[in-house]
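Saturday, quiet lab. Running sequence design on the structure tokens for the scaffold JK sent over.
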């Protein structure tokens, strides 16, 4: 008997197992650690072409890939510190190979909106839609975020910049690890410094914890705090519920609305 072909009974069993997984909500084959898509012959297709870096852009060298975490953080700090504008920072993040999540992602999701806006929104990490398109907050949660911002006369095209604390989709949307967050942090700090916003809106508990070291979004939302970047600069930050949470628990939109008004008031002050 040729064992190289699966037998009919095996196929039926495999299909039954896959159906059961799908019924249980498992709709993607992923492990906690990112798989390197390139080793599986994945088409390079939807990966973005990184813009040609400006001559002043510090670029990550291939020899620095797969560094130990502390060295990856140190490399990110050095590169981020050398970026003197939004475009240089964007090119540097896209060229950076030091975060293991990149190997399993289709796109680097850096930011979307108006560079230098007085409002910077920071979320957690790209999901499936964001990974596919290469922009933050483009799925259902992103559409709700856009409607929330529109309610206080804010939009990406004119007066708001949107980003995340992680630039590559974690497998299966799992929570990013502390190491992954630490590796991205120097770039997040630099984006905040280069934007110099009047307010940073932290969308959800994950960016709140990453940037303020505070846990418990139910109590911390709607209360102004300060983000301190690596260089010691301070920026006002307001945590609010993540829009994905509001989609699941719409009764909390009332509190989110109050927080948006708090934000609007601050943005209208001189
Ligand atoms: N959720 C986030 O936190 N960020 C995104 O970009 C999309 C969904």
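Result came back. Writing it out in full:
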């Amino acid at each position: 008997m040729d064992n190289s072909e699966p037998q009919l009974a095996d196929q039926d069993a495999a299909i039954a197992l896959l159906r059961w997984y799908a019924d249980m909500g498992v709709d993607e084959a992923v492990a906690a650690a990112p798989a390197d898509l390139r080793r599986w012959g994945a088409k390079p297709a939807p990966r973005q072409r990184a813009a040609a870096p400006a001559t002043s852009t510090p670029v990550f060298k291939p020899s620095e890939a797969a560094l130990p975490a502390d060295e990856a953080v140190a490399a990110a700090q050095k590169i981020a510190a050398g970026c003197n504008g939004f475009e240089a920072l964007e090119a540097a993040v896209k060229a950076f190979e030091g975060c293991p999540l990149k190997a399993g992602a289709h796109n680097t999701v850096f930011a979307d909106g108006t560079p230098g806006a007085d409002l910077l929104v920071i979320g957690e990490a790209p999901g499936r839609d964001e990974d596919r398109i290469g922009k933050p907050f483009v799925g259902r949660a992103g559409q709700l975020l856009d409607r929330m911002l529109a309610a206080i006369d804010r939009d990406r095209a004119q007066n708001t910049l949107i980003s995340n604390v992680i630039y590559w989709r974690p497998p299966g949307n799992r929570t990013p690890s502390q190491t992954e967050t630490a590796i991205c942090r120097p770039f997040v700090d630099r984006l905040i410094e280069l934007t110099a916003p009047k307010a940073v809106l932290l969308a959800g508990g994950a960016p709140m914890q990453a940037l303020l070291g505070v846990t418990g979004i139910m109590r911390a939302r709607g209360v102004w705090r300060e983000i301190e970047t690596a260089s010691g600069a301070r920026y006002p930050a307001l945590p609010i519920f993540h829009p994905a949470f509001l989609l699941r628990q719409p009764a909390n939109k009332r509190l989110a609305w109050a927080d948006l008004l708090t934000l609007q008031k601050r943005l209208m002050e001189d």
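Notes for JK: The domain at 66-268 is CATH 3.40.470.10 (Uracil-DNA Glycosylase, subunit E). The chain has a mean pLDDT of 88. Ask whether to fix the surface positions before the next round.
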